[in-house]
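FAQ: What does a multi-protein file look like?

Like this. Sequence, then tokens, then the next protein.
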Amino acid sequence: MIAKIFIDGAAGTTGLEIRERLAGRPDLSLIRLSDAQRKDSTARKRALNEADLVILCLPDEAAREAVTLIDNPATRVIDASTAHRVAEGWTYGFAELEPGNDARIAGAKRVSNPGCWATGFLALARPLVRAGLVPPDFPITVHGVSGYSGGGKSMIEEFEKPDSPHYVETVQRSYALGLAHKHLPEMTKHSGLSHVPLFSPNVARFHRGMLVEIPLQCWALPARPSAAQLQSALADAYRGRALIEVASLDEAAALKVLDAEILAGSNRMKIYVFAGDQQARLVAAFDNLGKGAGGAAVQNLNLMLGFAETTGL
């Protein structure tokens, strides 16, 4: 049986990424709407209810509204917005985050796709909290840098169109200076932490790719974990996973620099533990539009429809 897929918001950055990954797959049939039909609520509702699986690539309020338009009990949903990432009744769509999460996603009717920053943070933090190396109440700091495509069409225009009134020439800028960010609720809830992490995100003048980093003062942790224990906990968490790799300590030690674009264009993530004297830097490298958005959505689609997890990736 060929599954019918409708991407609501297919003209946006994430929607285009997902559509590109699904294009040409013989096991899927994409429901497409013209520009005029996308603005027609009747046509949209029909498409939402005709699909076996809907992927929402919309602003939060529009995503919530779209869910209310679905009255076909067989239609399943992946929401790529922030709207449902900590909502009751929704399964968090990070397949590798917890043992058995694949099966939970596969059986879910409603799946929320993780945010890109949350994906990198949780990939680093959750295994260490679960292993008892980082207590739930420990104060965690996370920072990093993302390509400007993570800001969608408006930010892409800021960096790419010199004739735009909002064009910027900056190389890198920090944001969320008010210590609030839309990814923080999911980062806190799904990591198992008791307190919101201190988050310092940055965007720089490259299109795609990102680094997310958690620095640790190991001497301040109750367990005083060694770099080997940190690396082992992360390696154990992702052993056998096709899309997440943990570098050995020797590989990490051999690096002098780490490029934020190292996995641009891929759907993979690579994790590094850089060690010093009772200190460690945990870094996740991936593509904000790949494993951080479109690639994760396709991975979830594959699980929900019974395909091999990495089909099309």
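And here is the next protein:
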Amino acid sequence: MKNPYEALGLKQGASDQEIKLAFKKLAKKYHPDLHPDDKQAEAKFKDISAAHEFLKDKDRKRRFDAGEIDASGAETYQQQYYRDHAGPQSSGFHAGQDGFASNEDLEEFLARAFGGMGGGMGSGRGRGQAGMKAPGQDVSYTLRVSFLDAARGGVNTLQLPDGKTLKVTIPEGAEDRQTLRLKGQGMPGYGGGPAGDAYIELHIEPDAHFSRKDDNIHLEVPVTLKEAVLGAKIEVPTLTGHVSLTVPKGSNTGTKLRLKDRGIKNRKTGVRGHLYISLKVVLPEGDEPELTAFLEGWTPRQAQNPRKEMLS
């Protein structure tokens, strides 16, 4: 991922509020639902979603601003690999760095601990070394997953630093920061030992329309003034496709409706949550002289002050 601030059109160190507003604006502009079959818009949406996910983590944002990590979340310096950069005179064991007085002391310790594997470790052909088996190291990765893939489940591809790829099965109802274990997908073992495991931490990207709370999904749906006043049948999106929804007559902004069992399937109980829809009344965009004339001559039967509670 490139610089997350640049992806959102912001300057380095932008505030949380600036980041939130920039993402909301760009997400509405490039959402795939508005640009079907447009690969560039889809790629742009993924970039801004990844940037927002990166920067909304306060600790990660702080470390990036301080130059401690790069845009992928990797350390900009890796002291843990100091041995890889040791000079020629330091080949073999690094006894002094490991708390031993000399390489001979270190080899003797390893010989006692592992049945004589110490000698010649620098060359990889030490005495007794051939008979030793050891498991490979575990490795950890992060994988960005779209909101819908996490909700519905699916298979994603993880690109590894060495150019290889891993197929990762995303369980239905996966949660943000959930960690998956891929057995045997870590570093190779030593002397015929088993490979280590790969641990994949999922980072769920936000969606421009859906949001999740526990196993329930929430969605704000705009309706026209006519649909709200007279009632109507409208199409609304769900996690699995569009369905027909009845807008009750006399609905208002904030009217809440429920679509049963249209939420997330609970991984433990198997019970699905619900889809809660909040209506938002939207006035016509263009001039409507008939509507204007009607309202000018209309006197409500009941006086109403929608701002009464705010002013009390």
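Q: Is there any per-entry metadata?
A: Some entries carry free-text notes. For the entry above: Residues 257 and 289 are 32 Å apart (CA to CA).
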